Every structure is written in structure tokens, then in C-alpha cells.
Amino acid sequence: MTAAGRATARDQVLALAPIAAASLASGSLLLVAPHLPIHAVAAQDLLAVILGAGGALAALHASSAGALRSAAAWISLGVAVSALVFLYVATPGAGALPVQVAALLVCGRIVGGSIGERVQHAGHVLPATVVAAAADCASLLSPEGISHGISQSDRALAVFALAAPIPGSSAITFVLGIGDLIVIALLLGVARKFGISARRVTIACVVALVAAFGASALFAAPIPALVPIAIFANALVPPFRAVAKKDRTTTIVAVTVAVGLVVFVWLRR
Question: Residues 116-138: pLDDT tens digits?
């Protein structure tokens, strides 16, 4: 194997190994979770969120150090989508959680990472994340929205939302949607392309997820994670909000329309 071939293989291992590790960890936790002496519901929920969302974020962060070449990416994505289709049709239950975790992380990593590595300017992150967050909010608020429909369907959640075992219980919960995973991977992809600190991006995502889960617990209502992700990613990673002068008008229009859409959907509820 040539040096270039070895480098490519190493990149692909770096990209996929953390996802495989997260999948195995979720399966192991699923086995031991019912036997853990944790009985307070609040503690169970908190640990499930920390382990589920934290594990996914750690996997995406580590995976961003590698690169998936076209053939490997398409093959991996095809396998992951096929696995999700199987889960939707067969509904095998909690035992398939490691497969679900791996499939969603692969989809998020490849789709989001591929988009991120094709972004032309780091400042494009600001309008992209605001529009994505607004679309997610509108979709969740509207009875006809895709996010709203998924949130009301256990079968759809099993495919489109990352599951995590609940320590001290045999049950599972859902911690992050596939859209959240795609946007996080996109941010890390942009960071990789433009030499931005992946650690800073990951810290911004951690702060955002803490804010999202905290607000959800406080208001006893689902809070779209993409909203705090958009806020904190742009606030804590300066290159993301450094919109080029030639793009400022387009950005203002895009952000205004996106926010206006959310307000419109909110008022017509």
C-alpha cells in the first residue's frame, strides 16, 4: 500500500472508529443499566442525557479528526440508511439500540461533515444555523410539521432521534434528533476545513445542549436543541459569525425571513 493509501485508510478509521465505540458503549450500558442502583427519576433522566448526548458529541468530535473519502462515505451512508429503514419496518425494540446509535451517528457525520467541508466561508455558518434552527422551531410548533409529527410517534422517534439507556431502568429515552447531529457534524466539518479549533466548537455545543436540556426541564416542554446550538456556536466561535461584507445583505434577509417564519407559525397556533 502506498503512503497516500495508508493515509486515506487511517483517515477513514479515525472517522468511523469513534462511532463504533459509541455504539458499543451504548450496547454495554443497555445491559448494565437495569442493575445500577439509581432510583431517583431526576437522576436517571439526567444521567441518560449526559451519557447519551455526551457520548454522541464525543464521537462526532473524535470522528471529525478523520476524513471519509467518497466511496467509503457513500457505502457507510447506504448501510446506515438501510439499517434505519430496517428499524422502522421491523421495530425490533430496545435491543437494537447499538445499531440505531451507529446508524444515526454515521448519517449525521457523513451528511453534516460533507456539507461543512464544502462551505466556502466560515461566516456562512451564522445564516445556516439560524435558518436551520428556525426551520426546526417552525416544524415543531406547527401540527403539520415534520418535527412535530416525529415527536408524536414512537416509531418515528426510534428512527430519527438518538436513543440512550436510562440508568437504573430497562427503559430508553431520546436525547438528540438527526437534525441536531447533522448540524453538529457540519460545524465540526467547517472547523476542520478552516483550521478552527474543534475543541472550541465542541465546547460551544456542550454549553448549547446544557441550555437546551435545562430549559426543557424547567418548562417541561421540548426545546429544539438547534436554537441554543445556533446561539452558542456563533457566540463562542468568532469565525462563524464573521460574515463577509458581500454576504451581509443576504444574511440579514435570510435571518429576518427565518425569524419571521417562526413568529408567524407561533401566532397561528
Answer: 999 999 999 999 999 999 999 98
Phi-psi region of 212 (alpha: psi -120 to 50; beta: other; left: phi over 0): alpha
Q: Which three cell numbers stand for residue 34?
A: 437495569
- State the number of CA atoms in the 13 A half-sphere of 167 facing the CB: 16
Q: Which of 151, 178, 221, 186 is nearest to 84 (CA)?
A: 178
| Total number of residues shown for the chain | 269
**8 A C-beta contact, residue 185 and residue 60:** yes
Put simply, whether the predicted model's pTM sits higher than 0.85 gets the answer yes
Contact 67, 11 (CB under 8 A): yes
Mean per-residue pLDDT for 222-242?
A: 94
Q: Is the pLDDT of residue 143 over 50?
A: yes
- Contact assessment for residue 14 and residue 65, using Cβ atoms and an 8 Å cutoff: yes
